[in-house]
Amino acid sequence: MEILNKLENKFSEIFGDLKELNEYIYKNPELGRKEFKACEAHKNLLKKYGFDIEENYIGIPTAYLAKYSSGKKGIKIGYLAEYDALPEIGHGCGHNILGTTSIGAGILLKEYIDEFGGEVLIFGTPAEETFGAKVDMAEAGCFDDIDVAMISHPTGKNHEKSGTSQAMEALQFTFRGKTAHAAGDPYNGINALDGVIQFFNSVNALRQQTKTSARIHGIISNGGEAANIIPDLAVSNFYIREATTKEMLKLSERVKNCAKGAALATGTSLEIENYEYTFKHLVTNEKLSSIYTKNLELQGIKDIPMSDPTGSSDCGDVSHHCPTIHTYFPISKCELTGHSLEFAKATITEEAYKGMKEAIFALVMTGKDILENENLLKEIKDEFNQMKKTLI
Length: 392
Prior knowledge:
The chain has helices at 2-27, 36-48, 95-116, 133-139, 192-206, 245-266, 286-297, 315-319, 341-346, 350-372, 374-391, and strands spanning 52-55, 64-69, 76-81, 119-124, 148-155, 164-165, 167-176, 215-222, 233-242, 269-274, 282-283, 324-330. The protein is of the alpha/beta class. A six-stranded mixed beta sheet has the order 1-2-4-3-5-12.
């Protein structure tokens, strides 16, 4: 196909820069909201290829908005770039190559923006793993006036279609009691750890009455200081997940009630607060997804299963504001465990660059299809507007 030959030539011209960016970020992993090196490297490359950069986007120091405009009115296509790492294992989620893929797609789509009009925007979105900046951007209306948003995430051995993701709330439960000597006068103490343990037991009982899509998992992050002191402080951190945002909020209330009951039973006081951002569930725009899948198939890729909806992402919040897809591309010939050192190492292999190129081509071809066919965009927007009614 002519477009594939054209993209192949253009990609070969920029591949060296993309590889250098990916491997620089791989070697310099930074946690969420601290991705200063990665953010600067992204911006420098985008400036080199003619993008205008808005730094410190919506007041977040490691966020940016890169824009390339034809100067003519038209469709606005957004690509989402991530670049935060994980503690201890670096880029075990592959956000180094994810952000690089979005940048590559944006650079290659420029030529079609010049031809058909409109804009291509790349959103630099920090901290997907924790305080996801896409949540802040969605709340600030940053995605309300773009026509589509796309992102492709690295995974094991297959390209995967955009599916769903679970809504998630991160809650911290702080139980407070009264210290006393555990042997000498335990009757004068109020054991905060008893509150946490009772809470865990209640949650374990609750699981029998939850849907198969529900996930409730937590840890005791503070359980006291010494075995002979009745602890006056105990803390647990939980993630509560469900298939939809509405179901997750219902489940979250049930978990909170377990904690309240445990506090009442043990005579402790209780504080409940969010320790990370709440993520909405991902709603894939199926029309947009079908165009992307078609463009993978045009590259000779046939085995394209649906992605597994067991994780959560701040991309879900984007999907509630504009038509969105969150696809996956392979970085290995075998299955990989996410959030692992093996996954991080796989992001700088030849197999990873092959999957990256295929994802970039599909992202660009999907953008081109929408730019040159107004009926496609109408179908995408009609589906999105219909979906919005179900969320009200």
